[in-house]
Amino acid sequence: MRIGFGSDHTAVALKLELIRHLEEQGHECIDYGTHDPNVRMDYPVPGKAVAEAVRKGEVEKGVLICGTGVGISLAANKVPGIRAAVCSEPYTARLTVQHNNANIIAMGARVVGTELAKMIVDEFFKAQYEGGRHEARIRMLADIEREYGASWEKGAGKA
Ligand code: RB5
């Protein structure tokens, strides 16, 4: 799978570990920054970059990391068609794909260690969306976006 990665300055090291881990499994990983842990990067910047890449179909899914995972997921979720979920353990990572059809996983580098983060992304990328009863709820999320003027379909790629 083609996966987009993004982090703020707090999470560059963990991001690089996860890229290495997923590349070893044959995934293609594209790093949308930031690259320098010593220069502050506001989390909305990489959050938006990866979310837009998913929306356009440049990458199939995304991995976003900041200190807690919260700020960067909030940024990503502002982009129509994005369902970014903050996960601190593998169970939620699996369920958010199966039930919410999440297209981005977010984590906190100050929350999870490297080995736990690897287990979380493994579960996320192994899981399959179940559709069925969940489909109507996903449509309801898109309805909220439309209600506030966002166009979900326009240029939405696989998002
Ligand atoms: C940066 O200090 C921190 O606020 C950021 O990485 C993130 O945790 C925000 O949600």
Describe, in plain words, how this protein is organized in 3D.
By secondary structure, the protein is α/β, with parallel strands linked by helices. It has a single domain, classed as Sugar-phosphate isomerase, RpiB/LacA/LacB (Ribose 5-phosphate Isomerase B, Chain: A, 3-Layer(aba) Sandwich), CATH 3.40.1400. Helix content is 45%, strand content 15%. The chain has six helices and five strands; from the N terminus they run βαβαβαβαβαα. Strands 2-1-3-5-4 form a five-stranded parallel β-sheet, sandwiched between helices. Helix 1 links the parallel strand 1 and strand 2. Helix 4 packs parallel to helix 5. The chain is globular and about 40 Å long. It starts with a strand and ends in a 12-residue tail after the last helix. The mean pLDDT is 95. It binds D-ribose. D-ribose binds next to helix 3.
Topology readout:
Blueprint: E1 2-7, H1 12-24, E2 28-31, H2 44-56, E3 61-66, H3 70-77, E4 84-86, H4 90-98, E5 104-108, H5 114-126, H6 133-147
Parallel strand pairs: 1-2, 1-3, 3-5, 4-5
Helix pairs in contact: 1-5, 2-3, 4-5
Bound molecules: D-ribose.
Known CATH architecture: 3-Layer(aba) Sandwich
Distance between the termini: 15 Å
| Sheet with the most strands: spatial strand order | 2-1-3-5-4
Element pattern in H and E = EHEHEHEHEHH
* CATH superfamily membership: Sugar-phosphate isomerase, RpiB/LacA/LacB
What is the structural class?
alpha/beta
Specify the CATH class: Alpha Beta
Q: Please summarize the sheet with the most strands.
A: 5 strands, parallel
Shape: globular
- Poorly predicted runs of 5 or more residues: none
Provide the CATH topology: Ribose 5-phosphate Isomerase B, Chain: A
Helix content: 40-55%
The total count of helices amounts to: 6
List each distinct ligand once: D-ribose
Give the tally of β-strands. Answer: 5
Computed Rg: 15 Å
Average the pLDDT over all residues and give the rounded result.
95
What's the number of structural domains? 1
| Percentage beta strand | 15-25%
